[in-house]
Amino acid sequence: MINGNLIGGPSKVxxxxxxxxxxxxGVAASTGQTQVVPNVHEFPGHIACDSSSLSEIVVPIxxxxxxxxxxxxxxxxxxxxxxxxxxKVGMEAVVQVLLHSCDWVE
Length: 106
Description:
It is a single chain. By secondary structure, the chain is of the alpha+beta class. It has one domain (5-101): GAF domain (Beta-Lactamase, 2-Layer Sandwich). Helices cover 25% and strands 25% of the residues. The chain has two helices and five strands; from the N terminus they run E-E-H-E-E-E-H. The chain has helices at residues 23-31, 85-101, and strands at residues 5-7, 17-19, 35-37, 55-62, 69-77. The chain has a three-stranded antiparallel sheet, with helices on both faces. A hairpin with a 6-residue loop joins strand 4 and strand 5.
């Protein structure tokens, strides 16, 4: 996060900055809610970083102390409907481990 924008890290990045509310990552960041998208082509404003991706899950990383969004964990898959409730629960647990085991700069 820099100046209220998500900053893309090492990977295939469609945008280096994503405004809150834009695309799946921006919606997850602005709402603070995990986004499970079975078909990214049906998601309004989807930002395509890989044309072969069909589904996506994005988990916001929210500060335990301040409640601020620190970033998101974003995973794409080439299959449609690749992510379900078990993936949501598992990835949210991964984010909790990250929050409790990393030193975050706010």
